[in-house]
Amino acid sequence: MLRGLAWLLVCQLIGEVLVRLAHVEVPGAVVGMLLLFAVLQWRRIGSGADVVRAADVLLRHMQLLFVPAGVGIVAYVSTLRADAVPVALGLVGSWVLGLVAVGWSATLLGRRSAS
Fold this sequence. Notes:
The chain is mainly alpha-helical. It folds into two domains: 1-64, no CATH class; 66-115. It contains seven helices and no strands. The chain has helices at residues 2-22, 28-43, 50-60, 62-65, 67-75, 77-82, 84-114. The longest helix has 31 residues, at 84-114. The chain is globular and about 50 Å long. It starts with a helix and ends with a helix.
């Protein structure tokens, strides 16, 4: 399990370094996640691998990872209230874009697995 956590953290670290070096406006964690996805696809790691077990443990306790975000919302509620319309439009817009991206990805993966 420790090796799995190390995989996750190393991929995130590499993503953070790449973003800082390239001066890209993308979160380093997202780049690290894409890197991890590429490594997992390349190595064809099974469901019993250390990184999968570590990810399962993190997913089991995911509700704890939302506590800092909730505290941030409570701390900045007056700022959010003042900019409610742009924040709401950003939330709805990002939700729609995410929904379209997941639908598109699921369609492509469905075609790929059917072939």
